[in-house]
Write a structure and sequence with these properties.
3 strands; alpha+beta; Alpha-Beta Plaits
C-alpha cells in the first residue's frame, strides 16, 4: 500500500502537522510489525514535511488502512475562546 501525506494550506503549521501524522503512522506500523519503505520525503525549513510518500507492507495492511483518506485539519482557538468552550453553561 502506498501512503501519501502532504501538507496543505497553512505553511509551517501544516508541514509540522504532516510530520506528526507521518510519525503517528510510523508508530502504528511498528506496533503491527509492518515494514515502511520511504520513497520520497520533502522537508520544510521548520522541521516539518511538505510531502511524504512511503510503501507500507505487512499482514492486513490494506484492511487496517483502507478507510484512512481525506483531509485532516488543525483548528487553533484563541485562549479566551478555549476557556469559554471548556466552561460548562448554566
Amino acid at each position: 500500500m502506498i501512503l501519501e501525506i502532504r501538507a496543505g494550506t497553512g505553511g509551517d503549521e501544516a508541514s509540522l502537522f504532516a510530520a506528526e501524522i507521518f510519525r503517528m503512522y510510523t508508530r502504528f506500523a511498528e506496533q503491527h510489525k509492518w515494514k515502511i519503505e520511504l520513497l520520497s520525503l520533502s522537508e520544510s525549513g521548520v522541521g516539518g514535511y511538505k510531502e511524504v510518500i512511503a510503501i507500507v507492507e505487512g499482514e492486513r495492511v490494506y484492511s487496517q488502512l483502507k478507510w484512512e483518506s481525506g483531509v485532516h485539519r488543525v483548528q487553533r482557538f484563541p485562549l479566551r475562546r478555549r476557556r469559554a468552550a471548556c466552561t460548562p453553561r448554566r
